[in-house]
Amino acid sequence: MDDSKINLVLSGSEVFVWSADDWLKLRQEHRVVGECIGCIAKKPRQDTLSGLPMLLLPEEAKLLLEKGICQLIQHPVLKETPCESLKKKFEEYRSKLYEEQQECLIDQRRIQVLSVMDKIIEGKKRKTLGLHTRKKKLKKPLDDETKTALDNVEVDRKALIEEEMSKLPKLKMTDALVQTHTAFPWHTDIIKIENWSFPSNDEESLKYKVFKDIWEQGYYVTSGQKFGCDFLAYPGDPIMFHSQLLIHCKNRNEEMSVTELVAGSRIGSHVRKTLVFATLSTDGERIEYCSSRWADSSMGEF
């Protein structure tokens, strides 16, 4: 196994990147974006933003393997039934995480209590004298006699802090956050997968050749599923740029109706992108492109 190459992890028929460093390197140095499908470690209960792992398109995985940038591996241990020692290690690790979260919860609660301790003490003193503790009543000034009596009421600050802390319910194990690992934490044995079965037919072969050709022209290339096409081409990182091209991969002998052409052109015009049809040349050695746009459109051709 070549340690200088980035590891792509094969799981079933899909390829993932689990390392944050590898994700960043692929994006910045090799213009491979993929799609993050995991949750963010610090915000696991939301689904607006996604984190690792990154799922690669088959075309992206094939390109990275062909260019020698990555190697395809899998963890055979993940397919095996966990042994008793591994189960025990997992339970110990989960218990440790639970205890750490309980301690963190207590620390955060103590910070909250201390930040409002003066108000709590004043409220305790008012209750002792039978005074109102509602916010509207607190705004009214006290007469000198009442104010003096309030100042003379003694409150055990330490005992009051402990009383407030005792109100914090104990964290249940079922409510504790579960850590999602981006690497298998207890085993390092991996094997290299020599073969990647993509592309396996003429359609997949055409899509890969188109993907590779556009990528080699300097574009960032992603899936075009959300616009009903095969690929989207970006002039720069999709974080900072909008896509410019809607790429449809077509067999040279495939018939296309006028309705399909008009529909694709209208979508491209509406989202301010150029519609591009890509196919193999007659000799099958290169990719040929045909772009379509409205006559009065200001968008450039491909």
TrEMBL record:
One of its GO terms (molecular function) is nucleic acid binding. Its EC number is 4.6.1.16. GO terms for biological process: tRNA-type intron splice site recognition and cleavage. Pfam families: tRNA_int_endo, TSEN34_N. Residues 6-74 form the TSEN34 N-terminal domain. Keywords: Endonuclease, Hydrolase, Lyase, Nuclease, tRNA processing. CDD domains: tRNA-intron_lyase_C (cd22363). One of its GO terms (cellular component) is tRNA-intron endonuclease complex. Residues 206-288 form the tRNA intron endonuclease catalytic domain. InterPro entries: tRNA_endonuc-like_dom_sf, tRNA_intron_Endo_cat-like_sf, tRNA_intron_Endonuc_cat-like, tRNA_splic, TSEN34, TSEN34_N. The active site is at Y234, H242, K273. PANTHER family: TRNA-SPLICING ENDONUCLEASE SUBUNIT SEN34, TRNA-SPLICING ENDONUCLEASE SUBUNIT SEN34-RELATED. Constitutes one of the two catalytic subunit of the tRNA-splicing endonuclease complex, a complex responsible for identification and cleavage of the splice sites in pre-tRNA. It cleaves pre-tRNA at the 5'- and 3'-splice sites to release the intron. The products are an intron and two tRNA half-molecules bearing 2',3'-cyclic phosphate and 5'-OH termini. There are no conserved sequences at the splice sites, but the intron is invariably located at the same site in the gene, placing the splice sites an invariant distance from the constant structural features of the tRNA body. NCBIfam families: endA. Belongs to the tRNA-intron endonuclease family. This is tRNA-splicing endonuclease subunit Sen34. It comes from Ceratosolen solmsi marchali.
